[in-house]
Amino acid sequence: MLRVIIADDHPIVRVGQKVVIEGSGNYSVVGEANGPDQLLALLATTPCDVIVTDFAMPGGQQADGFSLLGLLHRQYPKVPVILVTMFANVATLRAAFSHGAKAIVAKSASARELPQALKTVMQGKPFVSECLKLQLDLAAVTQATQTPQLSGKEREVVRMLASGLTVSQIAARVNRSISTISKQKSTAMHRLCISTDVDLFAYARENGMVP
């Protein structure tokens, strides 16, 4: 029986994951964490064979997202990490793999694909949800995965948004119109192949724009 630790800040998600994981008959959930702090404390005392974790679990002393993935990879290099996430932009997906994730499962498909991801990573192979794999394949064809270049003003708008300012507050601070700031935000998101504010904030954090 392979041992699995799951981490998600939503209890109902952990309940669902545990049912799916243990329903296959080959895995046992030996620990649950509600965030990065609890996950690291659990790993220090509870041996496991696989880690299944959410990407965004804010609120603790230890950073989530890419910082957490990198830390897990450094401290537990032999334990594969399966990332279960709502993030769907190409830049975030590729960065997750580069930070040590062995599999990325879309939350919308986790009930169906999580057992398959577990089986695949235990065979030493990477796994990507079908809906996410399509995006990566398309990006490879169009070379959309090359590092996108933002203008100085676009980068500054993204940084301030990720720091918690609204479009109106940014406009007032830099003495530009709200429509101009909105357009710069939209243009930046288009260049980055990002469709949601959450993904935009994740990009900003990944690229050192905010702490």
TrEMBL record:
Keywords (A to Z) from UniProt: DNA-binding, Phosphoprotein
MF terms in GO: DNA binding
Residue ranges of domain HTH luxR-type in the record: 143-208
Keyword DNA-binding: yes
A GO BP entry: regulation of DNA-templated transcription
SUPFAM superfamilies noted in UniProt: C-terminal effector domain of the bipartite response regulators (SSF46894), CheY-like (SSF52172)
Location of the Response regulatory domain: 3-122
PANTHER family listed in its UniProt record: HTH-TYPE TRANSCRIPTIONAL REGULATOR YHJB-RELATED (PTHR45566:SF1)
UniProt protein name: DNA-binding response regulator
Organism encoding this protein: Pseudomonas nabeulensis
